[in-house]
Amino acid sequence: MPVETRAIAGATVHIFPDSEAACHAAANQIARTIHDAVASRGRAVLGLATGQTPLPVYRRLVELNRAKEVSFAKVSTYNLDEYYPMAPGDTQSYRYYMEQHLFQHVDLAVNAAHVFDGTVPASFANEYAAQVDGWIAREGGLDLQLLGIGRNGHIGFNEPSDATTDEAVKLPSRVMNLHTVTITDAAHEFGGEGDVPRQAITLGVGTILAARSILILAFGARKAEIVAQALRGPITPKVPASLLRTLPEGRVTWLVDHAAISAVAG
Predict the structure, then answer these.
(1) Which CATH number does the domain 4-261 belong to among 3.40.50.1360, 2.30.30.100, 3.20.20.80, 1.10.10.10?
(2) Contact by Cβ (8 Å): 222, 19
């Protein structure tokens, strides 16, 4: 349970004593979303994130699945992004990450687990990303999107940009050039900045914002400044997470620890 809940800029912000408690709450919410969506329309469609932040979410979902408290048999998943180029079998790929931490441990159909293919030809990559948007639309859209937030405010690999807000909130899935902050933060995973891919394929801001509900996780003092900008600063594509505030009240829920929310007044 959160130790405190605030309403900030149309979002619900749950503050937890630590990241583990917050991630367990996120997993429980994902399980409830699956139950509700399957009950109401026979299928649930989830948008999933990667990285260190959501690992406890996936551990908890595996536990719930093994305890038969949630089933993925009628679930489709779409991952936020993938480095480009990147082979699915590469240990740095997000396909590999998802297989290791979720897919192979639950009753999710192989053809229902979608991760961007980082080997598609460059001349076809944006068209392929648009096809993924079409697949999601044909499944009725995302019931829930799980997000983290980068130190530069990115969601997925939608990096800071000079687009207008009206343009940014409609951005489709596409290939993106990675921001220098993103490359720096990924360097430890690749053994140095020089080995970090310079591009990624990402779900677009428009696809993310169309989700019926959004959970965003943020933990630690390193995220405090960007969380404050996202929640209290201008709504701007220069801080992509701030675009979540264009959504109606009740659509976005933040799950944070005390350190991550420490720079947000009120």
Answers:
(1) 3.40.50.1360
(2) no
